[in-house]
Amino acid sequence: MLRFLALSLALLLPALADASGGTIRRFALVAGANDGGAARTELRYAASDAAAVARVLEELGGVAPADRLLLVDPDRAGMQAGLAEMQHRLAAARAGDTRVELFVYYSGHSDEEGLLLGEEHFTYGELRQALESLPADVRVAILDSCSSGALTRRKGGVRRAPFLVDAASKVKGHAYLTSSSADEAAQESDRIGASFFTHFLVSGLRGAADSTRDGKVTLTEAYQFAFAETLARTEKTSSGAQHPAYEMQLVGTGDLVMTDLRSTAAGLVVEESIHGRIYVRDAAGALVVELRKAPATPVELGLAPGAYVVTVEDRGSLSEANVVLAEGKRSTLARAQLRSVEGERNRVRGDDAVDESEYVRAPFVLGLVPGSSTLPYGVPEDRVTTGIGFNLVGGRTARLDGVDVGFGLNWHTERASGAMLAIGGNLVGGDTSGAQFAVGFNHTGGSLDGVQASVGYNGAGEDVSLGQAAVGANFAGGDVRGFQASAGANWAEGAVAGAQLTSGLNVARGGLRGVQGSSGVNWVAGDASGFQATAGANVVDGGLVGAQLGPANVLTGASMGLQAGVANWSRASFSGLQLGGGFSWARELEGAQIGVINVGGNVDGAQIGVINVASGTVNGTQIGVVNYADEVDAPLGVLSVVRKGRFNLDLWADETSAGNLGLKIGARHFYGIFTAGVGGRETSEGDQRWTAGLGFGGHVPVGNPALSFLNLELLARQVHYGSDWSTEAGENHLVSTLRLGAGWQIAERFALVAGPSVNVSVAETDRGGFGLFGEAATVESNDEATVRMWPGFFVGVQI
User: Fold this and answer.
1) I need a labelling partner for 653 at 20 to 30 A (CA). Which of 283, 340, 437, 638 fits?
2) Mean pLDDT, all residues of the chain
3) Apex CA 727: angle with CA 726 and CA 730, to 5°?
4) CA-CA distance, 428 to 409, in Å (whole number)?
5) Which residues partner with 63 through β-bridges?
């Protein structure tokens, strides 16, 4: 797969004017470079991606054509000239109370060090410095490229969750979005004619990401949509999953509005009844927007005026519609406008069309068993439509428009538009618009728009719009827009927009937007928004925005929200809180893990538990008995092992012990200490004094020729006397020390350390012998313990 970089976007737009009444002016610097040098395969879509971003910013993002600068295949000098020109334009625009916002977008090749412009390098350091010098209130940069995540991981770069929701945006600062992590390839696709990340970013900006349906797409919504779709579409490619990343340093209230759909030249509204994956192509056949639309949710897209072809893919079926969007108008796409195309399942082969004239209406029918119903002479049962049916054992007609009461079987081969009551079962071969009630089973061969209630079994061959209730099982062959409630199992072949409640098993094979509650297992194949609660296991084979509550929780796609249970597992990135009574695992985590055992890849936040393990970098803290990480900012635990961290041996002398050995293990700035010591001032009994203990420390580099660093450390040491380590004095004598050490680094692995300390001794049997200049002062003494305090001093070496 091609690797390519898009650093883009500099500043974003709130709305039409800020609260102070000033105006807003938006600028965009957009660059696309297909050429990454002789060692790189030439890209196909970097320049067209840049053009697509430029178009959406002009059409929906409030960027005037005169305030946009598009660079195609720039070299290093061209990129520098573009940044210089933008600095000049921004400086000229900052007059009066004008708020200036800047977008910078780049698509092309890159590596771990920076952008590849032909045979030349433009490093991330140079890029960040140039962006930070641009005189704008807000700067947003987006990179779509290989290893572009390295931009967000440079010194000072910490990714933060974008909790920015206030509509009255007055934000200042910068935000950097990248299409891949620091060690991943960014991918482009011939099928969509673009890079995955930029394609879904543009789709989101045109309205697919408007999750709040307020007609505006914010920075948070655009990133979340592009992240989830990019990850989902690249997980099965030959190059593997691609994880977009971001860094935000924004102050103020409100989220940044990227695009305003209300200002679009033309709009396309896709009505609620249409759902599935939607593709919008322009007159030239180019794919303009792609999204997955959930049931019962309208979507509005901002597009340029013109002709489009809209294709809807829903569980293997394809349908299309041609729409023409006029200047300044919004057009609605209704389900009735869709026509089936090749690939959709139509009428079953051999199922000939039926002549409506063959049907005969009967006011009512009576039947003991199927085939014996009282019918007009010579008319088959499957050509009769009736208003009322009475069946003692069973009866059959083609269509029912009213009520059928039976003590055995109610069977209507095509449809029933009323209510069916049976103590045996209800069976309909087509649509059902009213309700079915049975002590045995209910079955509908088509859609159900009402209610099914059964002690045994409910089945709807396609969609269910209101609900199903059963003591045994519920089954929907399509989508469910309502509820399924059962003491046995609920099964939906399509998406569920509502609730599934059972004491056994819930299955939604097309996604979930609502609630699953079970004492057994909840399972969703596809994305989910809402929550799952169970006494057994929760599984989402896709992404989740919401919560999982249960003993075992499993996610396979990028998700955000809460997992709370004995065991939590997320195969992809997870943003939020994993709360585990036993074990929690996330491939990438932004937030916190709290539990007995926490395991993650890269962690932005905290791991709090007995054992914490991060195979990557922890931008935050680990608090536990045992901590392990490749890199970590602040570990706190009895044993913290950091692969790229600190491992030192200290030798020192103080008034407590003449000879001490300390082992320091941890991060560069925070670490744990294990100590052992021997010797000290002579005690009244003349016994040798031994110490053993542990502590914590912090390291601050100074870099001065006369002072290399400072260490602040807290130690707790158990004191023993003589060779008997089981004496009461040894078991109940504790010395606590707080000390400040000044260090002079003589060689790479050798430093002199010395400094003052404050010491407190608590002993059941006090033998004295402490203090820097004689016996330590007694703070308190009674029958239980003697407490002494004294100032001290230590000197030693650090290796």
Assistant:
1) 638
2) 79
3) 90
4) 10
5) 26
